[in-house]
Amino acid sequence: MIVIEARNLTKRFGDFEALHGLSFSIEEGSITAIVGPNGAGKSTLLRIISGLINRTSGKILVMGEDPWKSEYLPRKLSVILDKPFLPPFLTIEDIIKETVLEFNSSFSDAISLMDELNLSYFIKNKVKDLSTGTRQKVQIIFSLIKNPEIIVADEPTANLDIVSRFEVYNIFLKLRKKMNTTILISSHIAPELIAISTHLLGINNGILRYNGEVSKMIRKDLLEEFYIVVDNVERAVSVLRSFTIEVSGNQLKVRGNLMEIVSELIKEGIRIFYIRNSLLDKSVQGEIGWG
Ligand SMILES: Nc1ncnc2c1ncn2[C@@H]1O[C@H](COP(=O)(O)OP(=O)(O)OP(=O)(O)O)[C@@H](O)[C@H]1O
I need a labelling partner for 59 at 20 to 30 A (CA). Which of 90, 96, 160, 175 fits? Predict the structure, then answer.
């Protein structure tokens, strides 16, 4: 089922046209990576879908409604912004209680989410005393408390380290599996994001360059080969013995499902410094005519 549909969608800021007649559709239960270079129009598109700004012309329907006018969508759609705004003088616990009350959802589910993102320690802290990354994770939790049917996330993991990023991806994957939630995530090119996404929407200079399934756009072998630098190569090789690995210095070339690889390493306390897949980067950049 199509949950988001755009036809000839255009956005102008004064004389500047940021989106040029985009037409695409997003299927229910998909995870769509919205990728493109700086200034491509990713945030503008996500803001229109979320009803935060209005389009200049064209059509956009989200769950059959115009997001700019709908009173129903704000209860069904959650937005995660790259610069979280949360009331600085409230504690996380205060905000959770208020949000749970407002959306008639479960306090214990919210606490489980806090545990999954390793935030329980901060529950009595005021927002103003949290680090940027922790604030970002708190915003993600608040956006999930209302059990949204659609999540629109603009660079949600920009301030997070690798462990936290994968905690967030895990939550998104679980939500999709359990509730068939539709998720849109924007990012500068990030192989790890594409590895967890089902669909890809590539924009460059306000023009839609690609919209479709990841598996149709990218060769399967590129989605399953990663270069990973860790703090303890010997232990990592032993932990990942069920995967195909090549070692070069402190870098591992591992073939397999990225979520599984990373979760094995994290479980064993192995520190990951970076994950790369430059062929995947190049393949996506080539498709959307960037770089
Ligand atoms: N309120 C605004 N007024 C004028 N121009 C704007 C406004 N918002 C965005 N733009 C312009 O529209 C273009 C698209 O911006 P947008 O933030 O959507 O890009 P982006 O792909 O999200 O970029 P980044 O990855 O750097 O966040 C840019 O050229 C930006 O300068």
Answer: 175
